[in-house]
Amino acid sequence: MSSANKMVSIITPVYNGEKYIGRTIQSVVNQTYSDWELIIIDDCSTDATSKLVHEASEADRRIKLIKLKVNQGAAAARNAGIKASGGRFIAFLDGDDVWLPGKLETQLDFMLTNEVSFTYSAYYAVKDEIKILRKAPLKITYSATLLNPRIGCLTVIYDTAVLGKVYMPNIRKRQDWATWLSILKAIKETKGITFPLAEYTVRDNSLSSNKFKLIKYNWEVLRLHKPNILPALLYFSCFLVLNTYKAVRERQKFYSLKRKSERLEKY
Questions:
Q1: Contact between 86 and 9 (Cβ < 8 Å)
Q2: 65 with 54: CB under 8 angstroms?
Q3: Distance from C-alpha of 150 to C-alpha of 98, rounded to nearest angstrom
Q4: Which domain holds residue 84?
């Protein structure tokens, strides 16, 4: 891959996303940086997702549709998009999330200026029009990310001219965290942008019970990086305490802000 190539390949997996995919596409079209391709991988949707994406691709040739023949999950869908990509930079944006207009321009300038091959940013978590900032540290290391996966997939960009094409492990959940760990293990640490550049759509089940369903996947990822059982158990215990606390605090914030908003609407 030539380092002169500055095109961004945006990888967007989607499944039954007709409700959100239009605004996701529009947030890419609205970017102030125009050298991109948007690769949308439809993971066997049964709704009008493919039709909407096809119409968008007819209007803008930078938008491309890949239709999987069998539902395989986000990891396989993203990997199909990465394989088909032609850009130097790989970025991720799921089919129900959005970018702020200056996202690509700001982040690419940051990467090139600071000579970093893997970056992320802060972002907003959004539910019922209520936004909560999910902060991002200025610097992050492999060890810190083992305990606290603070990198939002929708904010990540990596440089294939330095790292090559990095594919995600084929697990149903947490494959993005596993990927960031693999990259950080190789490069040791990296820098990110501390202000928000994207908005993540929070679904109802992601605030509570779904966190517990992820436990086995969290353990699976940690075991990949900590093959000895005792260190893995130690990291896993710390991980559970820290991330359960974070999930509860965020849920409380959402419900508190929602109640305030409802009270204001009454007046």
A1: yes
A2: yes
A3: 18
A4: 8-203
With DSSP H G I counted as helix, E B as strand and the rest as coil, what are the percentages for the chain, rounded to 5? 45, 20, 30
Q: What is the CATH number of the domain that holds 119?
A: 3.90.550.10
- Sign, Cα dihedral of 93, 99, 104, 109: negative
Residue 214 in any domain: the answer is: no
Look-up: residue for tokens 């539910």? 127
- Does residue 98 fall inside a structural domain? yes
Distance CA 143, CA 184 (A): 9
**How many domains is the chain partitioned into structurally?**
1
Q: Name residues whose C-beta falls within 8 Å of residue 164's C-beta, 6 or more positions apart in sequence.
A: none
Could you report the per-residue pLDDT of 134-192, keeping only the tens digit for each?
999 999 999 889 888 889 999 999 999 999 999 999 888 889 999 999 999 999 999 99
Q: By C-alpha distance, which of 36, 44, 25 is closest to 95?
A: 25
Please report the sign of the dihedral spanned by the C-alpha atoms of residue 163, residue 182, residue 118, residue 36.
positive
The one-character DSSP state at 8 is E
Token representation of residue 220: 């699976």
Q: Which two tokens stand for residue 262?
A: 């409802």
pTM for the whole structure:
0.86
* H or E segment to which residue 49 belongs: helix 49-59
235, β-bridge pairs? none
